[in-house]
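User: New here, any thoughts?
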Amino acid sequence: MNQGETICAIATATGGALGIIRVSGIHAIDYTDHIFTSASGKKLADCKPYTLHFGRIMDAGEVIDEVLVSLCRAPHSYTGEDTTEITCHGSSFILQRVLQLLISTGCRMAQPGEYTQRAFLNGKMDLSQAEAVADLIASTSASTNRLAMNQMRGGFSKQLKDLRDKLLQFTSLIELELDFSE
C-alpha cells in the first residue's frame, strides 16, 4: 500500500436507500471535483473545510446522480488526510459507476482496513484504538459495543500510559535508593 495514493471505497452496506463513497488522500478533493458539479457552481477546492455541498455527479455531460459531498481537510479527518464523502442513492449501479469515475481520475480502490491503517500511520490513533475499530464493527451487543467504543476512544491506551508512568516513577525511586544506599 502506497500512502501517497488517493484511495476510494464504498463506506456503507449495499442495498440501503443511501450509499456513501469515501475518498482519502492528497488528491481526494481534486478527484472529487473532477466528477462533481456543485449546485452553487463553486469548486470543492475553493470551499471551506467541514462543509456539505449539494450537486451532481457527472460523466461526459450525463447526470449519474444528485449527491451531497462532505469535505474535510488534513489533518482534521479520520485518516489525517484530505477526505471527501459522497452521499448518493444506494443503487449498486450508481455506487459502482461513481467508483469507476473516481478510479478513472486517478484513485485506486482501498484495501480492507486501509482507512484505519492510514489513521494509525498518520498518528490519529494508536494501535490499540485501531484494533478497536474492527471490534466496534463486529460488535453484536450493547456490552461489546461499549467495550470497543471505550477502547477506540483511548480507554485502554490511557490505562497503559498510567501504568507506564507508575513504572517509570518506581524505577526512578529504585535508582535513587541504589545511588544513596552506598
